[in-house]
Design a protein that fits this description.
Helices cover about 50% and strands about 10% of the residues. By secondary structure, it is α/β, with parallel strands linked by helices. The protein starts with 5 loop residues before the first helix and ends with a helix.
Length: about 325
């Protein structure tokens, strides 16, 4: 995830304190522990101190941590949900998860699922989305001022731009040194020895599947699954949509490839009593660099819900403003 400026973190923390003081946080927390829902949380690259503090808060509130296999069984069989059930996951496959996260999971006996993009693991260890942000000045003109456009263009075009950038950075004329971001194959093999850990696919190259052809989607998911299974010796049956993006074509492919669960970034509790599609399981994101009030609001789900409400309100305001301008022309 992109590191935020201090002023943005402070603003988010201030808003979180207001959400807590207003009672909205406590109302949402009550739902979390009502015994009706399971809370899915996903992290990326948190520090040990930051992650452990969140885990200790969850434990203090008597949360029960469940594995992906347990989650699937509960949803499929409509088993009773116990108050405070929490499903912990990590996206991308950051190498610091080995030193910062894995020891905490072992210390408190917590099951977790790591969704891995296998390309950076085998390659130079750098995620493409980090590379383009660091070297945005070397991107083609349309993307230098708005690098996020790369998240919305056809996969062939994105791949070519990133490939050209990598070639430039590894040329003799340019010396590029960057700390490894992704796990290594050896890291994954070692981590897979821990019975608490489940591995899932996050595609090969962290592609946004709506930007891909059907053949590209299948290749990205299938090849990442094969790699993970060869490294761990275990069946890979779960998947996480990179960037949370999907358009429905993935469902048939995932089913054909034997996937039993896929995680989204939809900001909702997991409700086993509903007609929940196991290939569209919601989760709440917990930011790596948030101050603790924001993390609390994210873990109980009120942060995402409130942010979505603000975005909808802003969008409506902009549409109203634009319609007014059009009407005055």
């Amino acid at each position: 995830m992109t590191k935020r400026k201090l002023i943005n973190k402070l603003a988010a923390s201030g808003l979180s304190i207001l959400l807590i003081a207003s009672g909205l946080y406590h109302k949402q927390k009550k739902e979390m522990f009502s015994g009706k829902f399971i809370t899915g949380l996903f992290f990326h690259n948190p520090s040990k101190k930051r992650f452990e503090r969140g885990i200790l808060w969850l434990k203090k509130n008597n949360c029960q941590f469940i594995s992906t296999e347990q989650l699937i069984n509960i949803i499929k069989s409509k088993e009773e949900v116990k108050p405070g059930m929490v499903w912990i996951t990590f996206d991308d496959g950051w190498q610091k998860n080995i030193s910062e996260v894995a020891p905490i999971l072992t210390k408190y006996n917590i099951p977790a699922t790591f969704f891995i993009s296998t390309g950076p693991v085998e390659g130079n260890g750098t995620f493409w989305f980090s590379l383009v942000r660091i070297f945005r000045s070397k991107l083609p003109l349309p993307f230098r001022h708005d690098v996020k456009q790369l998240w919305h263009i056809e996969e062939n075009q994105r791949k070519e731009i990133v490939s050209n950038l990598e070639q430039e950075l590894t040329s003799k004329q340019f010396s590029f040194e960057h700390d490894r971001e992704a796990m290594t194959v050896a890291d994954i093999k070692k981590l897979s020895e821990n019975p608490l850990i489940t591995f899932g696919s996050h595609t090969v190259n962290h592609v946004m599947s709506p930007n891909c052809t059907k053949e590209q989607i299948r290749s990205e998911i299938y090849n990442s699954k094969l790699k993970l299974e060869s490294w761990t010796g275990k069946k890979v049956y779960c998947y996480s949509y990179p960037n949370g993006d999907f358009d429905g074509r993935e469902l048939k492919i995932l089913t054909e490839l034997g996937f039993r669960l896929a995680a989204t970034t939809h900001k909702e509790f997991i409700d086993p009593s509903s007609n929940l599609n196991l290939l569209q399981v919601p989760r709440f994101c917990v930011n790596d660099d948030s101050f603790f009030p924001e993390a609390l609001c994210q873990m109980v789900g009120i942060w995402g819900k409130y942010m979505d409400k603000l975005k909808r309100k802003r969008k409506t305001t902009m549409m109203t403003k634009n319609n007014g301008l059009n009407g005055s022309i």
